[in-house]
Write a structure and sequence with these properties.
Number of domains: 2
Number of strands: 10
Oligomer: single chain
CATH class of the largest domain: Mainly Beta
Distance between the termini: 55 Å
Radius of gyration: 28 Å
Length: 256
Amino acid sequence: MGNPGSGSGAWRSCIRLAAISAPGIHGAVSTQVRRQGGWRWLTALLISCLVLMVAGWRLATPTDRADEQLVGLADASAATPNVPTPSASRAAGATQSRAETTQPRAESEEPGQPKMLAIPRLDLKMPITAVTVDDKGAMAIPARPTEIGWYVHGPRPGSAGGSAVLGGHVDSREYGVGPLAGLQQLRRGDEIIIKTNTGTERYRVSTVRLISKQDLDPREVFKRDGEPLLRILTCGGTYRRSGGYQANVVVTARPA
């Protein structure tokens, strides 16, 4: 990117040249300064072009760190597995036909494990990976921004109560920009489809919010009771080299 000292010196010499380049009694000296200043102008121009090229390249490079935390869990108890073991009858239910899976599900019946996320408005389809927590106590998410994680210690999509949480990277320095970059384009009423190993769960977008990571309440996001909701999270807002993205995009959807 060049030496800042030599660059600023070149600009100072140009300023001095402008001040003394008018014809005077020291014509020979002025001519010599003009020639030296011309080379300095050319050097400064080349350095400026190089700086602009490097800056443009950095701006075009995805900046999300692969290990950046999406959201931390405020309470260690939230990371405690609480997923019932499927019974033999439920396992047998996985072989039901598509027509049978469209029938209303009893409250006591556990929904299938989520496998695929689809959002028609964004022409988005992403495989869903089961995740837990990382060594920093945050929700672990897939390294590739083309995949999205489902928090296994919370409700499944289609559960009778609580928030089913999906989360993924918006981009990655290694893999580039992912489909979740368009998440903020969603509008109230947009359809979200979750394909499971036993059927399909459908939701409608209720809210799309950009929330500072300092203001995001994990207990609210990862609720295990109350109204059945689907929450989809990714990083957003301002990016800082020292702390990554400063906010989360949070989409909340209700059963259709």
